[in-house]
Every structure is written in C-alpha cells, then in structure tokens.
Amino acid sequence: MTDTEGASPRTVARTLTPALHRLAVLIGVIALIAIVGVVLSTRTVDDLTEGLQPASVANQAVLQDLTDLESAVGAWARSGEPGALDDYQEALARLPGHQQVVAQYAADDAPLMALVQAQRAAAERWLEEYAQPRVQAPGGAETFQLRRYRLGQRLFEQVRAAHQETAELFGNRVREASADATWRLRATIGSVALLTLLGWVVVGRSRARLLAEVSRPLVALEAVVHQMAKDPTVRAQPEGPREVRSVALALNELADAQSRARAVEHKVTEELRVLDTARDDFVSNVSHELRTPLTTIHGYLEMVAEEFEDTMSPRHERILEASRRNVARLKTLIDDLLTLSKAENRATTLESVDLVPLVRDAVTDVAITAAGRGIVVEQDLGDQPVIVLADRPMLGRAFLNLLSNAVKFSLEQGRVSVSLGVEEADGRRSAVVTVLDRGIGIPTAELERLGSRFFRASNAVTNEIAGTGLGLRIVQTIVDKHGGDVRIESEEGRGTRVVVRLPVQSAG
C-alpha cells in the first residue's frame, strides 16, 4: 500500500526483505558449494603436500643413501682409507629413517607397498651379501676380487630397478592427485561463477525498486545534511520509508539542539580561555615568587662555602655541594618554566632576521662548555644571508637549547655539527637548520614522547645527565609560533639529528 492511498508508509525492512531473502539464499548456496569444493580440494592438496610428496622425496633420498653407501664401499675397496668407512656409517644411519617415511605412507596403498617392500628387500640383499662383508674385509686395491665386485654390481642394479618401479608409481600417484585437485577446484569455481551470475540478475531486478522506494529519499536527506553544514537554519522534509522519515525528524531535532549547544559552547570556550590564562599567570607568578628565595638560599650557600673554606669536614662539603647543585637545578627549572610560559602566551613580534649570525651566536655561547669537555662544534652556515620573519630573542633561545642539548648529550672528545641551508619544495622555500651529535642518542621506543613536558629519556636519567625535560618543548613551541616544524631522528648509542625548518621571507 502506498502513501497516495492514505496508508502509513512502508518500512525499509518490508521493502528490502524479499530481495535480501533471495540474495541470502543465493549467497548460502554459493558459500556451501565453495566450502565443499575447498574442503575436498584441500584434502587432496594436503594429502599431496603433506603425505605423497614428502614420501616421494623420501623415496628419492633412499636411493641417494644407497648410492652414497655404494660410493663409500667403492672408495674403501680402492683406497682402504678410514674416511670411507665414516661416510658409509653416516649413509647407513640415514637410510632407515627415509625407508620408514616411505613405508608409513605406502601402508594404505597395496600396490605401492608391494613395490616398496621389493625395493627394501633388494637393498637389504645388497647390504647383507656385498656391502657389509666388503667394508668388514680389508680395503685397498690389493684386496680387489673381480667375482665379488661383479656380485655387488649385479645386486645394486637390482636395487636401482626396484627403485625405478617404485619412483614411477610415486610419480603416477602425484600426477593423479594433482589432476584430482585441479578438477575439483575448477568445478568449484565454475559452480560459484554460475550462481554469481544468477545472483547478479536477481540483484539487478531488485535495484530499480529499491532506488525508487529507499535510495531517492536517502539521497535527498543527504543533500539536506550537507546544506545544514553551511546553513544551520535548513531543515529536512519527512518523506520516504518510515525509518527515513524518523531520521529526518531526528535530524531536525538535532539541528535545533546544535543551535542551542553552540551558544553553550561559546560560553564554555570563553571560560576555558579565562582558566587557561589564569593557569599561565599562576605558573608565572609562582616561578617569580620562587626565584627570590632561591636566589637568597644560593647566596647564603656561597657565603658558607667562602667562610668555612678548607675547614669543613668532607661530609659537610658533600652536603653543601648537594645543596648548591639542587638549588641550581631548581633555578634552571624555574627559568625554563618562565621561558615556556612566555613562548606559549607572548604575542610574537616578527622582524626580518638573518639566521646566519643568529645560529653563529648560539654556537659561540656553547663553545666554552663544549671545549671544557673536548667537544668540537663544527659549523657550515654558508656565506649567503638566510632571511626569515622571526622574534629574534625567542628564536635565538630555541637554537641555543638545541645546541646545548647536543653538547650535553655528546660523549667526551666528541663532535657536534651545525649546518644551515635553504630547500625548495612545492614552490615554497624553507630555511633548514640541522644539529647533529654523536652522543648517547634516544631509545626508539621513547621517540614519540619527545617534546612532552618534563619528559626525559631513560638513558639520560640513567647516566645522571642534568636537565628539566622542558628544553625541547620550548624549542617546539617557539618554532611552531614561527610557522616551522621540528623533526628528530635518533638511534641509541649512535647520536641524534634535529632538523628545524622555517619559511624563508619572500622578496615582497
């Protein structure tokens, strides 16, 4: 019954069920045929690959073992060297295992079993009547006996003849199994293809009806959804199957709810902004407040060190040194917190800056620290200016942090390389600053966590290398504000490469 007759609209289930039932029956039949065909083919293939072929290979190995035995007997007869007896014993030890594999497979195949037994009997006759007595007798050319040699040749020819018959039957079995598997697979594929064609016809006949009753209302609903993304006042028209109408009504209700939620979202966003500002102010204020007492404590510690110089016991000197070290660590942490807070919240004032002297100044600042540990800082900055739009102090701090880290995590008498260049990709020119050290590196599992606040690599903690875990975060924040990016490649024990890319200022 249709809408024009005044009845309620049909559901999608009532529209789709007949077609789905027919399709399900076809799919079930196809699946059943495919499963049966695959199972039968798989059994044949399994018997071929897991039973017949290994047994055939083992049968070839039996002949190889016997051939090795015959060669070893001949070598003993010609030379009498003990090594020939070793080869004989090795081949003799391998032979029973290969014979057992062949016999196990042939147990259910009477014709094959008869040939396998004949082959085994011929091999045993050759071993008992010729091979064993010959290796037990003295070796060497002087012990050669023509009658015994001819006996061995005749018995071994019988072994070869028996093996040839067995190998031919194995070959026939392999070809029969391969043909059987191929036939079953082709029959399965043909049946599935035929039923698939029939299913295609059924689907094609059902498609027109489904398009008219289900697809067109859904397409119209999709168009309304896209319009809502541009114009929140657009609403859907309830038409089509019952479920589609329900979705249209729900979509209209959702659009109304979204309009109300936007107002709430705007209010929450404003409150979050205020809270974020308060948090940053709190960090900044606390850091400033802690600076003064730390400076005072540092001053008193220096006074104590000067006043009691050469009079303190070793224990008191260690206590004093630990206090001074931890005060310095706290002061560094506070400085990094203040720098990070400024980098995140400061309104960046950009000016044209030449990166060459900026990077060179950073190299100069770390040169003394590097020289104290025997570390050489190499620089390749080129002879052409590289101009970028930047906040000079903040960007200088970023490069100083990178170089300080490279020196800090380098080994004694190591080397740090700094280079500056310009690359062009996709019509955009970028300044590329690369800092490379050959230090302790970073564990691969920890690379993804780099840049997190207060994160320090496990090997840096183990080696007791001082740090706050904020240096790289500061670098990333500053570079992000300049429209650039930071990429880090590192291998533990091999060193770290940090590449900073910044957009080069255009000619305009």
UniProtKB/TrEMBL annotation:
It holds the Pfam family HATPase_c. It is an enzyme of class 2 (transferase). InterPro entries: HAMP_dom, HATPase_C_sf, HATPase_dom, His_kinase_dom, HisK_dim/P_dom, HisK_dim/P_sf, Sensor_HK_Regulatory, Sig_transdc_His_kin-like_C. It comes from the Bacteria. One of its GO terms (molecular function) is ATP binding. Residues 212-263 form the HAMP domain. It catalyses: ATP + protein L-histidine = ADP + protein N-phospho-L-histidine. Its EC number is 2.7.13.3. The keyword Ubl conjugation does not apply. Residues 285-506 form the Histidine kinase domain. It is found in: Cell membrane. The keyword Nucleotide-binding applies. The chain crosses the membrane at residues 20-40, 183-203. Keywords: ATP-binding, Kinase, Membrane, Nucleotide-binding, Phosphoprotein, Transferase, Transmembrane, Transmembrane helix, Two-component regulatory system. Its main location: membrane. PANTHER family: HISTIDINE KINASE 1, TWO-COMPONENT HISTIDINE KINASE. This is histidine kinase.
